[in-house]
Amino acid sequence: MKANVTRALVALVAGLAVVADAFLLFVKPHLSQQSSASNTNGQSWAGNSSDSSSSNSNGNSSAESSSTATLKDGTYTSVASPNAYGEIQLQVTVAGGKITTITTLQAPSHGRSQSVNAQALPELTNRAIAAQSADIQFVSGATETSTAFVNSLQDAINQSINASN
Asked: Which residues belong to any copy of the FMN-binding domain (predicted)?
């Protein structure tokens, strides 16, 4: 009985740690971007129906994506972003304040994932470089890969934004 209670407590603490990590990696950077955006343009981040931001197919507002003017030059390795089939980890190179190269360091390569990723990752890379942000349209049939790619890319972009000179 005591072992079961201990296991439950350990599982609870581990779950809370995962939630806290996710908050720090994905939510907090967006909150700081939102507050700085509202401070610089005098508009509330929530905005209203006349807000000029547009939404893409994955539900992210383009106002949430990073401005290329704030990217600091360097090479940034993201955290490995998990999906149902494995993890995706990217290395992003920024030069002249623009994303110039996105290299996939880690991606699921077993079973069907290999063929899905062979098609989806180059397309996602091209879309991200063209958009200069993680606010890109997902690849049809590769939702899990697209989600993990965007999360990993946003982490690298956040590192670039937060990098000291």
From this structure: 84-160
